Amino acid sequence: MVLSRLDQVRAMADPLRLRLMETLVAREASVADLARGAGVPLTRLYHHVDLLLETGLIEVVSRVRRRGAEERRFRAVAASYTLDGSLLDLTPGPDGGTAEFMALAKGVLGGALEALTEGLGTGRITPGAAGRGLILQDRALRLSAAGFQALAQELPLWLDDFSRRHRGKAPGSYRLAIAAFPDNDPPKPRRSPRTSPKKG
Predict the structure, then answer these.
(1) Which domain range does residue 50 map to?
(2) Which of 80, 125, 143, 160 is the most buried (most CB within 10 A)?
(3) Average pLDDT for residues 88-110, to the nearest whole number?
(4) What HEC string does the chain produce?
(5) What is the pTM of this model?
(6) Within a domain: 182
């Protein structure tokens, strides 16, 4: 799904809502399931779930009657989310657009770092062990502007295809956090020297 509205970015920028989204991308869940997984009180989640619904990031997949009340089960509307290019062209303004993107980046990358730290501490992540290790890469890419746009479009598709091909009979759950951004200003094109008009 391409996030094309600022309210969608704001919804994803909250760390708790980002954790809920991660769960709902992986599987469908009720608010009670989400509360147990996030370790927060049930009453705290209703506002967050309603906001994700209002912004079109999740959907209701079923309704079940339990003890005289209706329990809704939710799931994410997509397996991955990317930002529309026009959103990235926003300049800082009174709505704090840039701050929202920073909050979203901190939620994604900070959440991944927290999970990595916790995994190393508990032994769930064991560097060097097959299937339990860690891949760390930080590389500079030499790309044109069009190449960068192609990367943004093609990488999620490639990851989806790769995941399908390597799922196997008993797939594990792995986390991948990627940030790609301009590392320096592109060189300015050279201007041809001005020639003064010849006097006749």
Answers:
(1) 2-122
(2) 125
(3) 63
(4) CEECCHHHHHHHHCHHHHHHHHHHHHCCEEHHHHHHHHCCCHHHHHHHHHHHHHCCCEEEEEEEEECCEEEEEEEECCCCCEECHHHHCCCCCCCCHHHHHHHHHHHHHHHHHHHHHHHHHHCCCCCCCCCCCCCCCCCCCCCCHHHHHHHHHHHHHHHHHHHHHCCCCCCCCCCCCCCCCCCCCCCCCCCCCCCCCCCC
(5) 0.58
(6) no
Find which of 99-103, 149-153, 168-172 is predicted with most confidence, using mean pLDDT: 149-153
Predicted local confidence at residue 111, as pLDDT: 73
Q: Is the pLDDT of residue 91 over 50?
A: no
Q: Which amino acid is at 25?
A: V
Domain count across the chain: 1
In a domain, 142, yes or no: no
Q: CB atoms < 10 A from the CB of 101, how many?
A: 18
Residue with more model confidence, 21 or 160: 21
Quote the pLDDT of residue 33.
93
Kind of pairing between the strands at 69-76 and 2-3: unpaired
Residue 129 lies in a domain: no
Asked if the structure places residue 193 within a domain, the reply is no
**CATH at residue 94:** 1.10.10.10
Tokens read off for 21: 């989204």
Cα 195 from Cα 3, distance rounded (Å): 48
